[in-house]
Design goal:
heterodimer, A: mainly beta, 6-stranded mixed beta sheet, globular, B: mainly beta, 4-stranded antiparallel beta sheet, 54% strand
Chain lengths: 111, 116
Amino acid sequence: QQPVQSPQAVILREGEDAVINCSSSKALYSVHWYRQKHGEAPVFLMILLKGGEQKGHEKISASFNEKKQQSSLYLTASQLSYSGTYFCGTDSGAGSYQLTFGKGTKLSVIP
Amino acid sequence: DVKVTQSSRYLVKRTGEKVFLECVQDMDHENMFWYRQDPGLGLRLIYFSYDVKMKEKGDIPEGYSVSREKKERFSLILESASTNQTSMYLCASRGLAGAESYNEQFFGPGTRLTVL
């Protein structure tokens, strides 16, 4: 079952902050975040593991609440280059190899 | 530079044709995946393979089959293409569970297939 992402779309001005949420109905082992720019392949941003710490990548960070099976991606002081569609991918562990992706959140950063 | 490549960026086929989409990875990854991407639906898993000649159905396998004869190559086959299979197809690979390479899944550039 696909994780639920919110919001579906967001428009920001440069320098503004945004939060993208990812929620699953299943117990999770890890959450992966990807960004896809128009016409390109999704690119890995970060992984959050069960029992692990909050991660960061430049001005993009993420958290993972294992009890609630939720993850949030935080984008601070957004730049034009942050525009794209963000996907969370969830891994239930237990020997599974596959990620189940949400429907994506389209982020548009405007000058 | 690690890479997942797909045989075509754009493909146009007719209804009823047999279609082969090829994917090659150079990272010696055990796990390979085929997704289709449609607007508003995100990435949906069609099939995956965790070893040569091994395959598992994903969430939407109907109308598709796969082949993995070599570790680096994973093919998606549409036995009889239909218009509802018009989509973007993405291949991906990932290392062995427990290895560092398991944490990041690498995607190919995608094949935009149009079935007329």
